[in-house]
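[scheduler] slot 2 assigned
[scheduler] job type: sequence-to-structure, two independent chains
[scheduler] chain ordering preserved from manifest
[runner] begin chain α
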Amino acid sequence: MENIDWANLTFGYMKTDYNIRCTYSNGSWGELEVSDSEYLNIHMAATSLHYGQESFEGLKAFRGEDGKIRIFRMDENAKRMQDSSRGTMMAVLPIEIFEEAVVKVVKLNERFVPPYESGASLYIRPFLFGTGAQVGVKPASEYMFVVFVTPVGPYFKGGFQTTPFVIMREFDRSAPLGMGKYKVGGNYAASLVAGSKAHEMGYSNVFYLDARE
């Protein structure tokens, strides 16, 4: 494997060996498939592209002092993805498929799990999206679940040190009875302008106030 400077990794993307995929069609989920491609074939009318039918999760694998690799509470991530699926009318992925895919992708990319106490981790990104073609605001009949991994450093540059946040009153992130409680891409797109302004001002992130008030 190429030499990786584990202590100086940023929180970004690095190509690894394999990802895991699973498709939903005709009312059921298929078998897990292993792929070494970084690319996906998707219909131009897929609901994920036009109507935001997608969700994602983020969790990490760490190598312990004993050399064993551990993943923190992946069942909770699976449950949250199920909640996001219900909120966007996507096919609900069973928890056991989620966990099987996560464990499999980590094992297949074990050489990318950083050493103990390196300050780095193996980031795991499961995501689910509508692949079925649809013109008109309706849920798709076909979906794809994918899990890829990449070694990363701390999310914030200073690691576990204090980091400066800013309150921005001119932006809302979520509102009662809205989509804010779901981990979907649209909620992150809604943060890009405020996040960019915060970074320009020297802050690492943004606090949003209660949209109702």
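[runner] end chain α
[runner] begin chain β
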Amino acid sequence: YGKLLPKEILDMPRLGCVNVHASLLPRHRGASPIQWAIVCGDRETGVTTMRMAEGMDTGDMLEKAVTPIGPEETGEALHDRLSEMGAALIVKTLKGLEAGTLTPEKQDERYATKAPIIRKEMGELDFHKPAAELHNLVRGFYPWPAAYTFLGGKRLKVLKTKVLSGMS
């Protein structure tokens, strides 16, 4: 989403505003956590429910669900899996909030990382980087903005890659 709600809105609901974030906070705060988890080479991710605060994804955490990231999994596929996990987790979280059985947990700022909005130019492949990094960029930025290079002066989208043993 990438936008902040004003404090007067956040303070309105009796149980507070609750968000489902597609990362294991405080890692990958921001608008594109799914893509950045893959691009950064994370081996696992998940969803976190949290109380919304004035900062970007800085509120107290309520619950988490963890899942591995497959070595060939794309941003699109991971998005779909995390959507289902998030839907189930928010139902559980809201029931726990209503029952008063949840204990909010502060985020440890030492482990906070950012997941900024992705821009098209971020998908350009730099062949000076290791093969594993290029593979992660291709997977993370599929289907949008898609990784790319230039061939004969034309943009060439790279939709799938494979890292051969000894080439990481």
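[runner] end chain β
[qc] chain β: The chain has a mean pLDDT of 95.
[scheduler] slot 2 released
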